[in-house]
Amino acid sequence: MQSHLLKTFTVSFDLDEDRIRLDCSLVIKNQAKIYFTNKLSKIFINELVNQINKITHVKNSHDIVHDFAVGSRDAQEPVVITSEDTKKWLTKSIDFIRLEKVTRIIFKDNETNAVHLEGDETLLRNILDIFYLTFRTAGWNTDIFPSWVDNVNTANSKSIVVH
């Protein structure tokens, strides 16, 4: 299974599907819509927090570090899906691979589709914050998130550019 690198994605809650949706722009100039169930989203959040805890250089100061990381996020234009034949699939598994300076996260459907991103601590914290905002929008329980995520006062930017 070949995985394609994400360039930009926008996270939103899809009320019709009762799922989190990532509208993705890929480096190969294609687009994809990938969905997350509530159950898989919670597993993803747990592992994302574990990954952040492993790579953070400032222990016990998550509030300050997280506030700085999220505050440094530039507002981005959301991804707009423009093609009717955009691939749509349900994420069924997520792999985290620690590379030299970044963590690679691969979202897969366990069949033929996969996309990935590579990010440092700042990007991982921003993804965590955006999922927190999306859980709140969906009305899903946010107890899965650490308290230091809830303390961040951010704008409602739900788009991330991945380099």
Helix/strand/pairing category? alpha+beta
Number of self-contained structural domains: 1
Distance between the termini: 22 Å
Beta-strand percent range: 25-35%
What string, H for helix and E for strand, traces the elements in order? EEEHHEEEEHHE
Quantity of strands, as a count:
8
Radius of gyration over all CA atoms, rounded: 15 Å
Low-confidence stretches: 159-163
Shape: globular
Helical proportion? 25-40%
Summed over residues and divided by their number, the pLDDT gives a mean of 83
Largest sheet: 8 strands, mixed
Number of helix segments? 4
Task: Explain this structure.
- The model is unreliable at 159-163 (pLDDT under 50).
- The two termini are 22 Å apart.
- Strands 1, 2, 3, 4, 5, 6, 7 and 8 form an 8-stranded mixed sheet that branches.
- The protein has 163 residues and is an alpha+beta fold.
- It is built from 4 helices and 8 strands.
- Helix 1 (38-55) runs antiparallel to helix 3.
- The protein has one domain (4-161).
Key features of this structure:
alpha+beta; eight-stranded mixed beta sheet; single chain; 163 residues; 31% helix; 8 strands
How do the helices and strands line up, and which of them pair or pack?
Blueprint (H helix, E strand, L loop, with lengths): L3 E11 L4 E8 L4 E6 L1 H18 L6 H10 L15 E4 L2 E6 L4 E6 L5 E6 L1 H18 L8 H4 L8 E3 L2
Parallel strand pairs: 1-7, 3-4
Antiparallel strand pairs: 1-2, 1-8, 2-3, 5-6, 6-7
Helix pairs in contact: 1-3
